[in-house]
Amino acid sequence: MNYKTFETERLLLKPTDQQDADLIFRLLNTPKWLAYIGDRNITSLEDAKAYITNKMTPQLERLGYGNYTVIRKEDGSKLGSCGIYDREGVDGVDIGFAFLPEFEKKGYGLEAATKIKEAAFSEFGINRMQAYTSKKNEASQKLLEKLGLKQTGTTYLPNDKEELFVYSISSESL
Fold it and tell me: What pLDDT shows up at residue 88?
């Protein structure tokens, strides 16, 4: 099936697939991913491929949106990921993003997440979106605020011991 890809001034955002296993392997093992999101036990390219197949692709097939690989148009570099997630045990969808360390603090996160947020409301019919972030992850909090999300409380995700900040935005507030 053909799924939507998106384009910004500097970036392409395409649904993550098996060809992105190298990125997923590197990304899920960065110090910030491990500290703020958690260890997903991705210790090989085969694990990364299985993670894409078992965790990312089913949502894409079911809803038509999910995790997107962020690619710099200028040179084809894979910078990170951004997406809309329908998590098991959580009401509603949330926006999330993560970038390889060498591509942080260059505006790519804001550019990619802005496009994904716009697509959520205009193309996927989503009316309300949330985001979850570690209380220690100030960079993520600042990006969510730049996207127009407001901190609305705290929560625990299923099977997680860390209390997280919850941010929210609705299509009416745009």
Answer: 85
pLDDT of residue 52: 98
Q: Which CATH class is domain 6-126?
A: alpha beta
Query: What does the block give as tokens for 41?
Result: 């036990």
Which pLDDT does position 158 carry in this prediction? 87
The span from the CA of 132 to the CA of 153, in Å, is: 10
The pTM (predicted TM-score) of the whole model is 0.96
Average of pLDDT values for 94-104?
98
From residue 52, alpha-carbon distances to 7, 81, 116, 158 in Å are 22, 12, 19, 20
CA distance 146 to 88: 27
**Which two three-digit tokens encode residue 20?**
């992105």
Q: What pLDDT, on the 0 to 100 scale, is given for residue 136?
A: 96
Cα–Cα distance measured from residue 85 to residue 12, given in angstroms and rounded to the nearest whole number: 19
Distance CA 139, CA 146 (A): 11
- Domain locations along the chain: 6-126
- 3 state SS for 26-56: HHCCCHHHHHHCCCCCCCCHHHHHHHHHHHH
